[in-house]
Amino acid sequence: MAKAFANSADLKAYRQQLLKTRRTETKTISICAGTGCCASGALKLVDGFHRAVRERGLEREVTVRQTGCHGFCERGPLVVLHPELTLYQRVKGADIAEIIERTIQGGEVVERLLYQDAAGHRFVREDELPFYKNQMRLILAQNGHIDPTSIDDYLAVGGYQALAKVLGKSKPEKVCETIRKSGLRGRGGGGFPAGVKWESCRAAPCPDGVRYIICNADEGDPGAFMDRSIMEGNPHSVIEGMIIGAWAIGFPGRPQGYVYIRNEYPLAVERLGIALEQARRLGLLGKNILGSGLDFDIKINKGGGAFVCGESTALMASIEGFVGEPRAKHIHTVESGLWDKPTNLNNVETWANVPLIIDKGVKWYTGIGTGDVSRDPWGGSKGTKIFALVGKVQNTGLVEVPMGTSLRRIIYDIGGGIPGGKKFKAVQTGGPSGGCLPADKLDLPVDFDALTAAGSMMGSGGMIVMDESTCMVDVARYFTHFLADESCGKCVSCREGLRQLGRILDRICAGEGRPGDLELLESLGRTIRSASLCALGQTATNPLDSTLRYFREEYREHVEDKKCRAGVCRALISFRILADKCTGCMICAKKCPEQAISGEKKKPHVIDQSKCIRCGICRDVCKFDAVVVE
To answer: Is 168 exposed, middle or buried (0-12, 13-18, 19+ CB in 10 A)?
Structure first.
C-alpha cells in the first residue's frame, strides 16, 4: 500500500501507477464472498481455487479474487470467470479442478454448473441472465469485481475520484447544492431530499463547529439485506460518500462521523473496519485530508439489534448510551441531534450514491428515474433503488433498478415469476411497515410517491412476493406481532395498540372472529397512527390497512364463513383425501405425526378428523394431488 496521500495529485498519481502495474492480461476467478455464499462454503472455495492455481503453476496467468455479494443469492456460491463473464452457480469444492482444467485451461464450458431457467435454457454469460440483464447496477456495479478488503481494488475502479474532485476545490455550499439538484432522496425509508437535509444541517447554528455525520446501517427489516451487502462488498463507497458529506456539511468546522451498524452483521463490521483502517493509512481519514484542511474520522458503533433504532432519534440515543427510544422532533436533528449538535443522518445506500453523483454529474443522475426535480427536490424519484426480492418468486436476491420500474418487470422479468405454476397474489414493499399490493397493481411504477399513494411505501427496499397459498389475514397478523415485539414501548398507542391488534387478528385466525371486528381493527389502526411518536407506530398498521383495503373479502370469509381460502389458518380448515385420486401409496399415512390416516395399500385412504391436527404434511407429501383443503 502507498504512503499517505498529501493531496489529490498524489492520489491521482498512485491510481495511474496502480493501473499500469496491474496485470490486465490475466484471467480472473471471482468468487462471491457475501454472507449468503459464505454460509454455503464460499470461503473454502476461495482457498481451494488459490491452492489449485498454485499447484498448477498458473499464478502468472490466473488471479483469484473474493468479492462482495453478486446479488443472485439463492444460486450461491457463485463463481464468475473474467473476461468471458462465464457464471457458474452452486459451485462446490469438488468442481474446482474441473473448472480449472476444462474452462480456464481448456476454454470449455461446464454445462451442469450454468444457470438454467424454467424453460430449460442455459445461460453462459453473467450479463445474459435475465436476472442481471434487466437491472441497472450502479451502486452494486463493483460488488462482483473488487475485493472489499483491498483499497487498491477500489482505487483501480475510480474510487475516491469523486472525493478528489471536491476536497479543497469545490465550495462546501456548492456540494450541498449539487446533491439537492440531483434529487437524491433518502433510501432508508422516509425519502427525504438529501440535499435539503445537508443544507439545513450546514446552516444550523453551531458555535464550536462540531457537526455529526452518521451512516444508518441498522437494517432490521425481515428478509432485507441491501445495506449489509453494500457494506460487505464495497465499504469504501460509503466511506467516500461520508467524507464528501463531511466536507459539504461540516467544513471548516470539526465534523465527526459514526456508522451505526447492527452487531448481527459480523462480516460487514469486519470489512468496514478494514476499509476504515486502510483509508486512515492513506490519509483519506484523519487530519488535513488530501491537504484540504478537513479533519474527519469515522467510528463504528455496534447496535444491539433493536428494530426501533433504525429511527433517527432512537439511533442517536443508542449512540449516546441510552435506551433506544425516539423523542419528539420539536427541533429537528439537523439542528439538535447527537449530543445536541447539528447531525446529518443518511442510510448506507444514500451515502453510496454520493460519489456517483459527484463523479458523473447532476445531469446524468437526473436522467435516471421519475419526475422533475429541477425546481422541487420532492418532485420525483431519481437514481436507482436496490430491493431484496424474496418470497414466492423463482429468482430471489438483490435487485437494482431505475426508480419507476414496474413491479411486474421486477417480479417477472428479473425474478422469473411465481414458481410451481401458482398465481401471483400480492407483494409487500417497504419491509414490515409496508403495504401489500394485489395483482392489479403489478404495473405500478416503483417510486416513493406511487407506492405511498397505493397504500404502501418504498421503505428501505424489502420486497416480499406472495402466491395464492398465502393468507393475507395471517400476513397482517405476523407483521403486527413483529412490530409489537419491536416497539420500544414509549407510546401507549403503539405499545398497547399493536398488541390489541395482534389479539384481534389471533382470534380471527383461530376461527373466533366476531361481527364488527373489521371496523374495530380500522378504528384502532387510526388511533395508533395518529397518536404514535415515531415512524414505527405511524406506519405499523400499513400491512393491516392495505390487506383490509385490497383483500377485505378474505377477512370477511374468516369472520363470517369461518374459512381460510389459502389453507393456512388451521382452525378454519380441514383436509380430505379424494378417493378418485388416491392410489393407496401409503406415504401420507407413514408421514402423519398423529397416525390420523388409515387405509389399505393400493386402496383410497381416509383422514380421521378427530385426530388430525391440520399440519398439512399429508398434502405436502402427496404426489397425486389427492389431499385437498376444505
So the answer is: middle
Nearest to 77 by CA among 13, 33, 27: 33
Q: Whole-angstrom Cα distance, residue 583 to residue 590? A: 14
List, in sequence order, every residue forming a beta bridge with 256; answer none if it has no partner.
212
Question: Is the omega angle on the peptide bond into residue 255 within 30 degrees of 0, that is, cis?
Answer: no
pLDDT tens column, 214-245: 999 998 888 788 999 999 999 999 999 999 99
Strands (DSSP E) along 481-563, which ranges?
A: none
Distance from the first to the final alpha carbon of the chain: 68
Q: Which residues pair with 384 in a beta bridge?
A: 402
Q: Which amino acid is at 568?
A: V
Distance separating alpha carbons of residues 124 and 225, to the nearest angstrom: 27
Q: CA–CA separation, 170 vs 162, rounded Å?
A: 11
Give the mean pLDDT of the chain: 93
Does the structure show a pLDDT above 70 at 1? Answer: no
| Mean pLDDT, residues 44-61 | 94
Largest CA distance in the chain: 87
CB 521 within 8 A of CB 544: yes
Determine the pLDDT at residue 11. 94
Identify the residue whose cell numbers are 499500469: 20
Tally of CA atoms within 13 A in the half-sphere of 88 that contains its CB: 25
Q: Alpha-carbon distance 292 to 281, whole Å?
A: 17
pLDDT at residue 329 in the model: 81
Beta strand 397-402 pairing with 436-438 = unpaired
What share of the chain has pLDDT > 70, as a percent? Answer: 99
Residue from 540, 499, 466, 28 nearest 311 by CA: 540
Phi, psi of 298 (to 5 degrees): -125, 130
Number of H helices, E strands in the chain: 25, 21
Per-residue pLDDT reduced to its tens digit, 298-311: 999 999 888 888 88
Looking at 169-173, 342-346, 558-562, 625-629, which range is the least confident one?
625-629
CB-based burial label for 443 (10 Å; 0-12, 13-18, 19+): exposed
Higher local confidence (pLDDT), 355 or 565: 355
Domains, the chain, ranges and CATH?
8-133 (3.40.30.10), 172-375 (3.40.50.11540), 383-467 (3.10.20.600), 472-561 (1.20.1440.230), 574-629 (3.30.70.20)
- Locus of grid cell 496485470: 23
106 exposure class (CB count in 10 Å sphere: 0-12, 13-18, 19+): exposed
Return the H-helix or E-strand segment holding 79: strand 79-82
Q: Is the pLDDT at 20 greater than 70, yes or no? A: yes
Q: Tell me what pLDDT residue 134 has.
A: 94
